[in-house]
Design a protein that fits this description.
alpha+beta; two-stranded antiparallel ribbon; single chain; 5 helices
């Protein structure tokens, strides 16, 4: 059976490692537990200003899931090219840590406890506040279902790369033994 083609197989090794490092830096710097909705003021057609949701928690989590998927593909390609390195091992650990963090987040907010997410935000110059509907209950539950499905796919891919790493370790890695490197006359 032919090996499944990875979109990153033909990319330069140094570029792959830099991309994976950037991804891991992003993932390490973004704590799921501390995510919040991003709200900015926007100008209305009549020239007024109104608070507006520019990024929901759900969008931020979906971005992380997409980035994790990409990181797995990059790490598989790096693993194929370089074998097991501390960098690959760290990448795999980062992915599993992030998946665990996402699982904790899901357990923290069971479906039965989800309600419309409303934020009280400042509005106007007189220090007034308004309630801003950030995410409906239905949207949050629908996202949760998609998130679970995406996490399961990612978990499967992460386990595959981890199993591949273990197989390489059992076989002795990709290093050529010294006795085979020595030229004999």
């Amino acid at each position: 059976m032919a090996k499944k083609q990875n979109v990153f197989d033909n990319v330069d090794n140094d570029k792959l490692i830099k991309e994976a490092q950037d991804i891991m830096d992003f993932l390490s710097g973004e704590s799921i537990q501390n995510l919040s909705d991003t709200i900015h003021n926007r100008v209305t057609n009549s020239g007024g200003i109104i608070p507006s949701v520019t990024a929901k928690i759900e969008n931020k989590i979906d971005t992380q899931l997409t980035v994790i998927e990409s990181c797995i593909k990059v790490l598989k390609s790096v693993l194929d090219k370089n074998g097991i390195t501390p960098f690959v091992t760290f990448g795999i650990e980062t992915i599993f840590y992030k998946l665990k963090e996402l699982d904790v987040y899901l357990n923290k907010y069971p479906i039965k406890d989800i309600n419309d997410r409303i934020k009280i935000v400042p509005y106007g110059k007189q220090g007034k506040t308004i309630e801003l509907l950030v995410a409906t209950k239905e949207d949050q539950i629908k996202f949760r279902a998609k998130m679970l499905e995406k996490m399961q796919k990612i978990n499967t891919s992460a386990n595959e790369i981890n199993d591949l790493k273990k197989q390489i370790q059992v076989k002795g890695g990709y290093e050529i033994p010294l006795r085979m490197k020595i030229k004999r006359n």
